[in-house]
UniProtKB/TrEMBL annotation:
Mitochondrion listed as a keyword: no
CDD domains in alphabetical order: Ig
One Pfam entry name: Ig_3
The protein, known as: Dscam, isoform F
Stored PANTHER family: CTX-RELATED TYPE I TRANSMEMBRANE PROTEIN, DPR-INTERACTING PROTEIN ETA, ISOFORM B-RELATED
Annotated keywords: Disulfide bond, Immunoglobulin domain, Repeat, Signal
């Protein structure tokens, strides 16, 4: 008895207008089997040895039915198997829908416009925005949303039997900071506020959250759903409706990136970020030089100005009698006086500036000018005692310190 195998499995679903083939093999019979296809008990096509192909072209509703393949080696050696063929009839598009991944959409974010429709053959699509064609695909993605993207979107689904359409309006809103753009600088204060504003259309969104990341504190999460606020760490923050983050006892540890996230009814959030910097006053100190210093003419001296605690690190600048001398530097600035003269006399001030916060320290420099020796004296001790030592001392006033030579007639 031959074994019957088919290249297709039942049920077979074919779209109207498509072509269909199924190969039937009758193998292992002795003698080799005759293979024949039948539809609803009526033979279709020829009988062939061991293999026959069922071929249907441009199928329609009349091709629905049961198809049987029979393999027969002799009258007592017969085998058969059947398939059920179902033809899906063509129909024009219907139940057309247009949806958005988020509505309202947020300026600067993204949104996808998606069309769906039932129809056979599979419909083609055109998407219009305010009567202007924007896509020949069933999905159109707007990568950077603008206010101009608001309006009516229409989807037309078409096939050879007709078309169907659907329309829907998209609203657009914006999340923005009241001031500061993408960065804010605060002074060290008891309380500061980061205020985000929302266009009214965005108030339909159901929850909001904030997150903060800095190298000093790690990451904090603050979220609000309805009237419930959750703070995942003991950071000193609060929330004011609709979208204001209140920071308390602000210091440099609050430096970092603050992210405001607005969650729409679909899980595709919109995010607004701002970098916050907290300025702190520097403390300046001059080392190597006292507040009042007197130098000899021609002497060299270096005074080092440093700062601590400034956020950001302070610029250090030296001034003499109110006029800047040298370049501003970070962390440390050296005042070098070389071979001083009377022109170096004055008040020197080192100013440390971080953001708008400053500290300063001054030194007074005086210079003792050089002069030739004067009021020279010679003093002899133990004078006139033969056999006894005598001390002869020469004294004089002068700058630099005079050198001495004593002679005897």
């Amino acid at each position: 008895t031959p074994t019957v195998t088919l290249s297709c499995s039942s049920p077979v679903i074919v779209n109207e207008g498509d072509d269909f083939k199924c190969v039937c093999r009758g193998e292992g019979g002795n003698p080799p089997a005759n293979v024949t296809w039948y539809k609803d008990g009526v033979q279709i096509g020829e009988t062939r040895k061991e293999e026959q192909t069922l071929t249907l072209s441009n199928v329609d509703g009349t091709d629905n039915g049961t198809y049987k393949c029979m393999a027969q080696s002799h009258i007592n050696a017969t085998n058969e198997t059947s398939i059920e063929l179902v033809v899906k009839l063509n129909f024009k598009p219907k139940n057309t829908k247009i949806t958005f991944t988020k509505n309202p959409a947020v300026v600067g974010g993204n949104v996808a416009v998606m069309c769906e429709s039932s129809g056979l053959p599979e419909p083609s699509y055109i998407i219009f925005h305010n009567d202007t064609k924007i896509s020949n695909e069933k999905t159109c993605t707007i990568d950077v949303v603008q206010y101009s993207d608001t309006g009516t979107y229409k989807c037309i689904a078409s096939n050879k039997l007709g078309n169907d359409s659907a329309s829907k309006s998209l609203t657009v809103g914006q999340i923005y900071l009241r001031r500061g753009g993408k960065s804010l600088t605060f002074l060290k204060e008891p309380t500061v506020k980061i205020k985000w504003s929302l266009d009214p259309v965005l108030f339909t969104n159901i929850s909001r959250s904030w997150s903060f990341q800095s190298s000093a504190s790690g990451k904090d999460e603050i979220s609000r759903a309805g009237d419930i606020t959750i703070v995942t760490r003991l950071y000193e923050v609060d929330i004011e409706k609709p979208a204001t983050l209140v920071l308390k006892n602000v210091n440099g540890s609050y430096n970092g990136t603050y992210k405001f996230t607005l969650y729409p009814r679909l899980p595709d959030p919109s995010i607004s970020e701002v970098v916050v910097f907290v300025a702190e006053k520097p403390n300046v100190m001059v080392i190597n030089c006292p507040r009042r210093i007197t130098l000899d003419e021609g002497e060299d001296r270096t005074c080092v100005c440093t700062e601590q605690g400034g956020n950001p690190p302070a610029n250090l600048t030296w001034y003499k009698d109110g006029k800047q001398i040298g370049e501003a530097t970070y962390r440390e600035n050296r005042l070098t006086l070389t071979s001083v003269t009377e022109l170096d006399v004055g008040t020197y001030m080192c100013v440390a500036q971080s953001y708008t916060l400053t500290d300063e320290e001054s030194i007074e420099v005086n210079v003792t000018l050089n002069f030739k020796p004067e009021n020279t004296k010679i003093v002899i001790e133990q004078q006139g005692k033969v056999g006894k030592p005598a001390t002869i001392t020469c004294k004089s006033e002068g700058l630099p310190e005079p050198s001495y030579r004593i002679t005897h007639d």
